[in-house]
Amino acid sequence: MKKAQKLIQKVQSISWIKKLIEYKFMPIICWSILVAVLPYLFSLVSVPIVWRIGLLFIIINSIISYHVGKQILQLNLKRWWLLILPGLFCLAIFPKFANYNLIFGIIYFIFELFGLMDKNIYR
Question: What is the pLDDT of residues 34-54, one digit of tens each?
């Protein structure tokens, strides 16, 4: 645990990373990159397709996209930031995975809208 904290502190002490962390939109970019990279990590680990779609695409990425919607609301970012996560996901999925996975970009956009609505979903 302490080694991980030391590693994080070393990474955060790099000058260009310090500058990037200062921007208020960086959590959105980081979560979007994570959503774009996770399918490739799951396929490298040889996770079966059914588990990859069920666990990663439906559960994990939906939770992340809801969280990104809440982050956009909390950070008072413009609404076009809602397009970053689904756009990066679709660009990452297009070269290697089946085209039907592109529908998840729309699903993630909807979950971001739910996160943006926060507690006003039923109003």
Answer: 898 998 998 899 888 888 888
Distances (CA, A) of 23 to 32, 115, 116: 15, 21, 20
3-state SS assignment for residue 75: coil
Please name which of 38, 37, 47, 36 lies closest in space to residue 105, comparing C-alpha atoms: 36
Other beta carbons within 10 Å of 52: 19
Neighbour tally for 109: CB within 10 Å: 17
Angle between helices 26-44 and 61-74 (to 10 degrees): 170
> What pTM was estimated for this model as a whole?
0.81
- Cα distance between residue 34 and residue 11, in whole Å: 17
Sign of the alpha-carbon dihedral angle for 113, 118, 121, 123: negative
Can you say whether residue 118 is alpha, beta or left, with left for phi > 0 and alpha for psi between -120 and 50 degrees? left
